[in-house]
Design a protein that fits this description.
Layout: H1 2-26, H2 30-35, H3 49-58, H4 76-88, H5 99-108, H6 120-123, H7 137-157, E1 164-167, H8 172-177, E2 192-195, H9 200-207, E3 214-216, E4 227-230, E5 236-238
Parallel strand pairs: 3-5
Antiparallel strand pairs: 1-2, 2-4, 3-4
The structure holds zinc ion (ZN).
Zinc ion binds near residues 167, 186, 191, 193 and 228.
C-alpha cells in the first residue's frame, strides 16, 4: 500500500516536471535559455554582464562610423544602438531594452548565441579549435561572435539579402597560406571576407553603418574579388572604386 502511494507520488512528480518543461518550451524561451536569458529591463545607467551581452547583440547599430564598446556599461552610445535596433525591427524605439527587445533578440539567436544567418563554422574555415592565431582560441571565437552580430545587422539593412562569407578566423599558418597581411584582422577572429552578391561596393558602403572600422574593397590592393570587413582601434576604410 505504502509502495503504491510512493509510486503514485513519483509519477505525479515526473508528470509535474514534464509539464513544467513543456510550459517553458511553449513560452518560447527554449532558444533563450540555451544561450543567454535577460532577467531585467536594461536602460541607460545600468551595468553588468547582461548589459555586455546586450551590447554584443546591438553592436551592429552604432550609426555611421561608430563602434560600440562592449564594456557592460549602458551609456548613451548603447542607448542609441538599442534605439536603432528597435527601429530596424519595427519595435517601439525608446532605447530601453525590455521584454519586446529581448524577445526579438531571442528570435534572432541560435542555441550557441550566434545570430540567425551566420555560423561559427563559416567564420572559421581554418581549423576546428580556433588556435594558432594572434589571440587565444577563446578570444578569437568571442571576436567572431561579435562580428557575426554586426553582419546580421548589415544583412538586415541590405533588405535581408543573404551574405556569403569566404574567410573568417585564420591561424598564422592559414593566413600565410592565403597571403594574408602579417597583422591581419583575420588572425584575431575579427576579419571577414564576403563574396558573391550584393555588389562589393554595396556591401562596403553599408558596412560603414554597422560597426566595422576596417573596410577594404574594390580599389584597395588585392580586394577586387571580395569585400573585407574587420574591427580595430582606429578607422581604416579603403575602396576607391566605390568612392571610399
Ligand atoms: Zn580579409
Amino acid at each position: 500500500m505504502l509502495r503504491r502511494h510512493i509510486r503514485t507520488l513519483l509519477s505525479l512528480v515526473m508528470l509535474a516536471s514534464f509539464i513544467s518543461v513543456g510550459t517553458a518550451m511553449t513560452a518560447g524561451s527554449a532558444q533563450a535559455a540555451s544561450c543567454y536569458t535577460w532577467n531585467r529591463t536594461l536602460r541607460e545607467g545600468t551595468s553588468g554582464e547582461d548589459v555586455r551581452q546586450l551590447q554584443i547583440r546591438v553592436a551592429g547599430y552604432p550609426g555611421y562610423g561608430g563602434v560600440i564598446s562592449i564594456d557592460g556599461q549602458y551609456g548613451p552610445a548603447t542607448k542609441a544602438a538599442v534605439t536603432r535596433f528597435q527601429s530596424a525591427y519595427g519595435l517601439s524605439a525608446d532605447g530601453i531594452a525590455g521584454p519586446n527587445t529581448f524577445s526579438k533578440i531571442y528570435g534572432l539567436q541560435k542555441a550557441d548565441c550566434t545570430p540567425a544567418h551566420f555560423t561559427y563554422a563559416e567564420m572559421n574555415r581554418c581549423n576546428s579549435d580556433w588556435s594558432g592565431g594572434a589571440v587565444s582560441a577563446a578570444a578569437a571565437k568571442a571576436n567572431a561572435l561579435q562580428q557575426m552580430w554586426k553582419l546580421e545587422a548589415l544583412r538586415h539593412a541590405l533588405g535581408d539579402a543573404p551574405l556569403s562569407t569566404s574567410s573568417g578566423f585564420r591561424s598564422y599558418s592559414c593566413n600565410s597560406a592565403v597571403g594574408g597581411a602579417s597583422n591581419s584582422n583575420h588572425l584575431y577572429g575579427r576579419g571577414i571576407d564576403l563574396i558573391g552578391s550584393p555588389s562589393y561596393c554595396t556591401i562596403v558602403k553599408q558596412a560603414r553603418y554597422h560597426g566595422f572600422n576596417e573596410i577594404l574593397g574594390p580599389g584597395y590592393p588585392n580586394h577586387s574579388t571580395h569585400a573585407h570587413l574587420g574591427s580595430q582601434s582606429g578607422r581604416f576604410w579603403s575602396a576607391s572604386q566605390c568612392g571610399i
